Amino acid sequence: MGGNAVIEEVIDDATIRMEKAMEALQRELLAVRTGRAAPSLVERIMVEQYGTDMPLNQLANIAAPEARMLTITPWDKSAIGAIEKAIRKSELGLNPTNDGSLIRIAIPPLTEDRRKQMVKVVHTKVEEAKIAVRNIRRDAISQAREFKDEKMVSEDDERRASNQIQELTNKYTTQADEIGKVKERDVMQV
Prior knowledge:
Blueprint: H1 3-30, E1 46-49, E2 52-55, E3 60-66, E4 69-74, H2 80-89, E5 96-98, E6 103-106, H3 112-149, H4 155-188
Antiparallel strand pairs: 1-2, 3-4, 4-6, 5-6
């Protein structure tokens, strides 16, 4: 493998890993509560069923028939108690009601304090994503340096790779901030 091919592989790997960090951030932020009802709010809640913990979306159909209402229809009616208990135990502060076959969750508007708490959660998750991106940068630059030390690439190739990796890092940390700002606006919307 030539020097450029080795460097391209390092950069491609870093790009893929940084992209995955952004996807993970977006998934994490789906569970951060806004004032609107969204199935993504509860779908990852772990429910103890059949002797194991399973995400809610594997046990039930979740819908948002109204802006401030979620309905959860378990595929197996015997799971309804466990689902209700898991929702109550979650840190979302939701109060489900069930009629034996369907769980309804009224999504109350967030108080100012609760919105501020949710924004802090968003900031934490964005910061975690940026740390992940910086760790990927460190790994990639370290790999490029090893290839230079092993004389697989020239010093110029290594320097060019480091610059490209830094540009990727800048791009993805900015993207994390933008993803966070969008979620923050959603949270602060009354």
